[in-house]
Amino acid sequence: MPMIVFLWTDVALYLLLVGVLLYVWRVRRSPTLRATWGRVARDTPAMCSAVVLLAFVLVGLLDSLHYRPRLPAAPDAPAGAAVAYAPAVKSVLDGLLDGTVLSRPEKTYSSPLASHQFTKETMLIDGKPVRDFPRLRSGGAHLTDPPSQTGPDILRRLGAGLAGGIAVALLGGALLSAALARRQGGFRHAARHIARGRTELPWRPMMITFGLLCLVVGAVAGLSSGYHVLGTDRTGNDVLWQSLKSIRTALVIGSLTTIAMLPPAIAFGIASGYFKGWVDDVIQYLYTTLTSIPGVLLVAACALMMQVYIDANPDLFTTSAARADLRLFLLCMILGLTGWAGLCRLLRAETLKLRELEYVQAARAFGVSHWRIMRRHLLPNVMHIVLITVVLEFSGLVLYEAVLSYLGIGVDPSMNSFGSMIDRARLEMSRDPMIWWNLLAAFTFMLALVLAANLFADAVRDAFDPRARRFKPASAPAAGGAA
C-alpha cells in the first residue's frame, strides 16, 4: 500500500467540494433557490460550459489525490525491515498517465507528433561524427522507418482514439436516456426527445458538447500512446502533461483565493453599511488605503516575505511537493486577504439600502440584537452578490496567477502552472526556428477554462441579480394563426 499524503491545498479543495455538495443539498430543499438555479440550468451556453468545467474539475480532483509509492524491499533486507517509500509525491492523475508517452521525458525540444529531436546534435555513426537530428527516446520510438511509417501510424492511432471517444459519447447518451426514461415515457421516447431538443433542460447541446469533448480526449489519448501530442519543452518534459498538471494550480488559485476573500469582505461590508458612523469611517479608510497600493507590489512584498519564511524553515517539509504546495496555499491566502475591497464596497452599498427597509427597522424596534439582525436578515439578502462575485472572480484570478508566475512571484518553480509555461515560452518565441507549441498549449487550456467559467458566470449573474436578468420577448404568432 502506498503512503497517502495530505497536502494543504488537497484538504482545502475537498473541503470546498463538501461545501458545494452541502449547498446543492440546501438548494434542493429551498424552492426559491431551486427556481433560481433552474434558470441557470435552462441557459444553453451556461450548461455547455458546465460540461467543460466539470471535465477540468475532474482532472483537478484526480491530481489532488497524492501518495508516495512503496519501494520494493532490498534483496538482503531482514523480514521485519521498515517499509520504505519513494521521496517523490505522485497523484492519481500521474498514475493514470504512467503508461503513456506523456510521462516519459526526452532530452530537449521536440515538435508535436515528431519522432526526431527538434535540435541537431553531434552523433557518432560508423565511427564518424555526424551532426543530425537524433531519434526521440519515447516519441515514435516504435517506428523502424519514421519517414514512411509516421503518417499511417498517426492516422491509425487517431482513428482508434476517435472510435473510443465515439463509444464513450454514445454510452453517455444511453445513460442519460435511461435516467430520463421514467419521465419521458420510456427509453426510446427519452432518446428521441433528447435528439430533437424537446426537453426542458438543454440536454441536446450538452450532449453535443460532451461528444465533442470525448472526441478530443479520445484523439489525444490515442496519439499519446506513441507520440508527444503537443511536443516537449527545453528540459524534455511533455507539454500536454504540463498543461494537465497546470489545471489543478489554476483551480486552486481561482477557488481558494475567492474563499479566502469572503470572510473579511462579508464581515466588513455588512458592518460598515449597518452601523455607519465611525465604524463605517474606519472600514472605508482601511479598504481605501488598501486599494491605493498597487496590487502587484503588495502581493509581491507579501510573497517575498512568505518565501523568506519557507527558506528559513526547511525542516518543516518532508518533501519538495509539500514545500511547493505550502507556497501555493499561502499565495492564495495573500491574494484573498489583499483583494477583498471590491466585494466589501458592493456589500456596504447593499447593506445601506437594506438597513432602511421595514423588516429591519421592525427588528431593531423590538430589541433584536445587532448580531442577529445581520445574521438573519442582512446576510441572506446579500448572498446573491457574494455568489455572483465568486463566479466572476474565478476567471480573473486564473489570469492573475499567470501574470504573477510570469513575473516570478507566483507559484513555486517546481510546480506546473500556466503562468510558468508562459514565462518559459517568452524566449522560445524569439528563436529561429520558432518554438510555438509551449505557448499555444498554455493559451488553449487557459482560453477553454476561462471562457467556460465566464459563460457560466454570466448565467449565474443573470439569474441571481434581478436588475441584470434578461427577459426574452415571446415570439410573434404566425400569420393566419389564432389570435
From TrEMBL:
<keyword id="KW-0653">Protein transport</keyword>
<feature type="transmembrane region" description="Helical">
    <location>
        <begin position="158"/>
        <end position="181"/>
    </location>
</feature>
<keyword id="KW-0472">Membrane</keyword>
<keyword id="KW-1133">Transmembrane helix</keyword>
<feature type="transmembrane region" description="Helical">
    <location>
        <begin position="6"/>
        <end position="25"/>
    </location>
</feature>
<keyword id="KW-0571">Peptide transport</keyword>
<dbReference type="Pfam" id="PF00528">
    <property type="entry name" value="BPD_transp_1"/>
</dbReference>
<feature type="transmembrane region" description="Helical">
    <location>
        <begin position="46"/>
        <end position="62"/>
    </location>
</feature>
<feature type="transmembrane region" description="Helical">
    <location>
        <begin position="326"/>
        <end position="347"/>
    </location>
</feature>
<feature type="transmembrane region" description="Helical">
    <location>
        <begin position="285"/>
        <end position="306"/>
    </location>
</feature>
<dbReference type="InterPro" id="IPR035906">
    <property type="entry name" value="MetI-like_sf"/>
</dbReference>
<keyword id="KW-0813">Transport</keyword>
<keyword id="KW-0812">Transmembrane</keyword>
<dbReference type="InterPro" id="IPR000515">
    <property type="entry name" value="MetI-like"/>
</dbReference>
<feature type="transmembrane region" description="Helical">
    <location>
        <begin position="435"/>
        <end position="457"/>
    </location>
</feature>
<comment type="similarity">
    <text>Belongs to the binding-protein-dependent transport system permease family.</text>
</comment>
<dbReference type="GO" id="GO:0015833">
    <property type="term" value="P:peptide transport"/>
</dbReference>
<dbReference type="GO" id="GO:0005886">
    <property type="term" value="C:plasma membrane"/>
</dbReference>
<protein>
    <submittedName>
        <fullName>Oligopeptide ABC-transporter permease</fullName>
    </submittedName>
</protein>
<dbReference type="GO" id="GO:0015031">
    <property type="term" value="P:protein transport"/>
</dbReference>
<feature type="transmembrane region" description="Helical">
    <location>
        <begin position="202"/>
        <end position="230"/>
    </location>
</feature>
<feature type="domain" description="ABC transmembrane type-1">
    <location>
        <begin position="247"/>
        <end position="457"/>
    </location>
</feature>
<keyword id="KW-1003">Cell membrane</keyword>
<dbReference type="InterPro" id="IPR050366">
    <property type="entry name" value="BP-dependent_transpt_permease"/>
</dbReference>
<dbReference type="GO" id="GO:0055085">
    <property type="term" value="P:transmembrane transport"/>
</dbReference>
<feature type="transmembrane region" description="Helical">
    <location>
        <begin position="250"/>
        <end position="273"/>
    </location>
</feature>
<feature type="transmembrane region" description="Helical">
    <location>
        <begin position="382"/>
        <end position="409"/>
    </location>
</feature>
